[in-house]
Amino acid sequence: MVGGRGGGSGRRQERQALMVAFALALLMGTAVYFRIWARQSSDPSFTADDREELRRQFEQANLEAMDESAEWRMKYDKEFEKTRQLQDELSKVKATLAGTARRLELLQKDNEMWKRQTESLKQKCNCTIPLKTMQD
């Protein structure tokens, strides 16, 4: 995949679906409001008590919607915080891994240098003593 991360398309579709659902809910709420308004203005039998009852129902529905919205916002905030913490941990692990890889590279270079130096000393020595201790 180009760009490293994937899944941007799925998130975009998810956001788009959420926006469509929100727009539909807003449209339906507006339609209900206009229907109530039209009924109030055209029906003479619609009393003040009926209007008050409808107002209370509308207010209760509005409060429930606000509570649900707050609940979803809390869930989003928790997930966002969890994601941020995981990204921080991942960054730390990557930094540690990079440092460890660099250290390994340096140790391998040192090891090669010591091997060459040991071979050089073996060739200079020309001893008849077996170098079994070095090979063990």
Task: Explain this structure.
The chain is mostly helical. The chain has a domain at 12-46. It is built from three helices and no strands. The model has no long low-confidence stretch (mean pLDDT 83).
Topology of this protein?
Elements: H1 8-42, H2 48-125, H3 132-135
Q: Assign an overall shape.
A: rod-shaped
Encode the helix/strand succession as letters.
Answer: HHH
Number of helices: 3
Distance between the termini: 48 Å
Average pLDDT, rounded to a whole number, is 83
The fraction of residues in strands falls at: under 5%
What are the low-pLDDT stretches, counting only 5+ consecutive residues below 50? none
How many strands, which pairing sense, and closed or not: the largest β-sheet? Answer: none
> Helical proportion?
over 70%
Counting DSSP E segments of at least 2 residues, the number of strands comes to 0
Helix/sheet category: mainly alpha
Task: Evaluate the radius of gyration.
Answer: 37 Å
What's the short story on this structure?
The chain is an all-alpha fold. It has helices spanning 8-42, 48-125, 132-135.
Q: What are the salient characteristics of this protein?
A:
mainly alpha; rod-shaped; coiled coil; membrane
